[in-house]
Write a structure and sequence with these properties.
alpha+beta, six-stranded antiparallel β-sheet, L-fuculose-1-phosphate Aldolase
Length: about 230
């Protein structure tokens, strides 16, 4: 299998995993992956239901957004993905969903507070939510400006995109990323589960406060970084 075919296959599998995990319905959501060597992005086609999707349907584009080899239109969110790939050079896969709980926080224009160790295992601090897109951005290139909203949030608050692999876009929904499409899907699944727990916790205790920094550090860094000790050595 050549590199382009392999890229399509991996993105297809990641999109189907998103459906199998219950994070998308009908045509909601999309997964992409980039081959940095080829400078090619593979992404789900727009409006194609997951039950009808095949590896051959996955659309290949260059980093300017031009389609390379497909008769199908790429996801309507393609320019958001490309903006993130261009700005965050160490990510290899991106997911966008309208999963129920994460989207509820986005619609409420709220970050997802880090309330416990489950959250701390995967996300270092609160999961940020962008500002609401303003009309000047809305009537430029909406999807590209959505990517710029995420980038602006991370720049303004000095957030490390490698320790915070998710962002809520206010009034819209979540985006996640990882080293490849598979990891980005995993991150999206974890985000939705944590958003669910967060909602339940805040329903039980409206005065709950975020986890203390020492406990956050302990749980995050036992899984991530040079001194991580969770799991098995490869």
């Amino acid at each position: 299998m050549d590199k382009k075919s392999k890229l399509k296959e991996e993105v297809y599998i990641a999109n189907i995993e998103l459906k199998n995990r219950g994070l998308v319905i009908y045509t909601f959501g999309n997964v992409s992956q980039i081959d940095r060597e080829l400078q090619i992005v593979a992404i789900k086609p727009s409006g194609v239901e997951y039950d009808m999707l095949t590896p051959q349907d996955i659309v290949l584009l260059d980093l300017s957004g031009s389609v390379i080899d497909s008769k199908l239109n790429p996801s309507s969110d393609t320019k958001t993905h490309i903006a993130l790939y261009n700005k965050f050079p160490e990510i290899g896969g991106i997911v966008h969903t309208h999963s129920k709980y994460a989207t509820a926080f986005a619609q409420a224009k709220l970050p997802i507070k880090c309330l416990g160790t489950t959250h701390a295992d995967y996300f270092y601090s609160d999961i940020p939510c962008t500002d609401v897109i303003d009309d000047r951005m809305l009537f430029k290139d909406y999807e590209e400006e959505t990517g710029n909203l995420i980038i602006s949030k991370f720049e303004k608050e000095n957030i490390d995109y490698l320790s915070m692999k998710a962002c809520l876009v206010a009034c819209h929904g979540p985006f996640t990323w990882g080293k490849d499409a598979k990891e980005a899907v995993f991150t999206s699944v974890m985000l939705e589960e944590i958003a669910n727990m967060n909602y339940i916790t805040q329903t039980l205790s409206t005065e709950i406060t975020s986890i203390k920094k020492t406990l956050l550090d302990k749980h995050y860094f036992r899984k991530h970084g040079s001194h991580a000790y969770y799991g098995q050595k490869q």
